[in-house]
Design goal:
Blueprint lengths: L3 H10 L8 E5 L14 E7 L2 E6 L2 E6 L5 E4 L9 E5 L4 E5 L2 E5 L3 H4 L13 H9 L6 H6 L9 H10 L13 H23 L23 E6 L4 E5 L9
Antiparallel strand pairs: 1-6, 2-3, 3-4, 4-8, 5-7, 6-7, 9-10
Helix pairs in contact: 1-6, 3-6, 5-6
């Protein structure tokens, strides 16, 4: 599943489509996608793991789920979920994704201050939300899109290793300094992720995700196939990542 930084990359790659008019629509989505024909794409935005296309009076949300993908100015052999042909001979094609129309203004639907990669990100609001969830596991808290929109499982594992916190630590047991580190690193690592992914070196920088040994102390990493309410893969070092219970 693409995490927030990957959606930012898609948004930046597709920026040149803003202002263009949709010439034709194809795809196997069950949504009434033909209503897009003839419409002008006003803007491209992102919130967390959502790629957003704004048109006059409505928007389209693309969620790439687990295996979604996209192509710009080319097509895959498989049918698109949504394909948009624009004036000037350009195309945006989306595959194996969720397509949904949003009728309300996006500013009424999305809390931009919860998006860790948005200029409106509010770390103080994130800390308040976390303090209201004292029983949540740190691993689950990082994956809560209402608190950290855009953070996914890779970022979760790497952030907890950076700040030396065990994934099963309770949010309410974290000292204020650790809580602040969790919030700050969720954003910082997301931007590091963005930089590394653009340079095609993201995997080289993983410290614990899908790894066997802790790079700090050489300890064999612990692994859980499904951890917490989110039931996502977890990798951590039992020596240097402290359990706050």
């Amino acid at each position: 599943m693409p995490e927030g930084p990957s959606i930012v990359i898609i948004r930046e790659a597709a920026a040149g489509f803003a202002g263009r008019r949709v010439r034709a629509v194809h795809g196997n989505s069950r949504e009434p996608i033909q209503r897009l024909a003839g419409k002008r794409l006003v803007a491209l935005r992102s919130w967390g793991k959502h790629f957003l296309m704004e048109f006059d009076g409505f928007a389209v949300r693309i969620h790439f789920m687990l295996f979604g993908s996209y192509r710009i100015d080319e097509r895959k052999a498989t049918p698109a979920r949504l394909g948009l042909e624009f004036t000037g001979g350009r195309e945006l094609n989306f595959y194996a994704c969720s397509v949904r129309f949003i009728e309300q203004p996006l500013d009424e639907v999305y809390d931009w201050s919860a998006d860790v990669m948005n200029d409106a990100w509010d770390p103080a609001a994130a800390r308040r939300k976390l303090r209201a969830r004292p029983d949540a596991l740190a691993a689950d808290a990082l994956l809560d899109q209402d608190v950290f929109a855009g953070v996914g499982n890779i970022i979760k594992n790497e952030v907890l290793h950076r700040i030396r916190v065990h994934p099963e630590s309770r949010v309410g047991a974290l000292p204020p300094r650790k809580l602040g580190q969790l919030v700050a690193e969720a954003r910082q690592y997301s931007f590091d992720f963005l930089e590394w992914k653009k340079a095609f070196v993201l995997r080289r920088h993983w410290q614990v995700h899908a790894k066997k040994t802790c790079p700090r102390d050489g300890t064999e990493l612990s692994y859980r196939k499904e951890l917490g309410q989110a039931r996502r893969r977890a990798f951590w070092c039992s020596r240097c990542q402290r359990l706050y219970a």
